[in-house]
Amino acid sequence: MTDTKIALVTGANKGIGYEIAAGLGALGWTVGVGAREQTRRDAAVTRLRDAGVDAFGVPLDVTDDRSVAAAADLIAERAGRLDALVNNAGITGDRPQQPSSVDPTIIRTVVETNVIGVIRVTNAMLPLLRRSASPRIVNMSSSVGSLTRQSGGYGETTTGPVAAAYAPSKSFLNAVTLQYVRELADTNILINCACPGFVATDLNGFRGVRTPQQGAATAIRLATLPDGGPTGGFFEDAGVVPW
Ligand SMILES: NC(=O)c1ccc[n+]([C@@H]2O[C@H](COP(=O)([O-])OP(=O)(O)OC[C@H]3O[C@@H](n4cnc5c(N)ncnc54)[C@H](OP(=O)(O)O)[C@@H]3O)[C@@H](O)[C@H]2O)c1
């Protein structure tokens, strides 16, 4: 086993995930580029390597048990452990998502990727994370998953469009994250949620106002937390996001 830190970033072929991989790589980490489609995965790995990053491709569809198990095997073979898992892959799902008319299939599809996908990948990677001296898990959430912000509570501004699949999927992800924090409280694994802000990516038709690089910053910070750093938190660049 090498001393170089190793991370897996899911959905790293583009958008914020790509920039998380690039940012960790720039810090000297080896980065597994989790991506489900070979051409897009290879292109991202090539781009990262050209930028000097020690990147390698990890075929990974977070909705597929066999794909996720194979990804864990690949990382075990390549590095023998995992220092940071960044669960970044996510979808918004088809629209419309007005709660009064949404097709339940859309909700199931979004939850399968944004929540169950995170659980599937996390559980497959936990044995590798347990072999790290300083393991970190970062779940890419969104402030639209904040019930406080959705309700306009405590003076918070309501964010994002009405979306019965996407926004609650991130609330669900936040809730699941806290269950991991509780279960793993007696380990050294630091587990946190990140919100990247409103970032111009495919996810929102590039309507976001921040760059993917800016959106990657909080996740990179949480993936590289020092020992004794926070766990069980929800963070954005400006600080703590209310649950
Ligand atoms: N953009 C924003 O303003 C914003 C705000 C808050 C939170 N977020 C969150 O940030 C994360 C990244 O979003 P983004 O804006 O960078 O979006 P993006 O550019 O659309 O990237 C999403 C990534 O997830 C991957 N993905 C989707 N389903 C997958 C699956 N089943 N298996 C593996 N990979 C899968 C995509 O792969 P393909 O290329 O193969 O589709 C892509 O690499 C998401 O969790 C999103 O909810 C984004």
TrEMBL record:
Single GO term (MF): oxidoreductase activity, acting on the CH-OH group of donors, NAD or NADP as acceptor
GO CC term, one of those recorded: membrane
Keywords: NADP, Oxidoreductase
Record Gene3D superfamilies: NAD(P)-binding Rossmann-like Domain (3.40.50.720)
UniProt key word NADP: yes
Family: Belongs to the short-chain dehydrogenases/reductases (SDR) family.
Protein name (Swiss-Prot/TrEMBL): Dehydrogenase
Organism: Micromonospora inaquosa
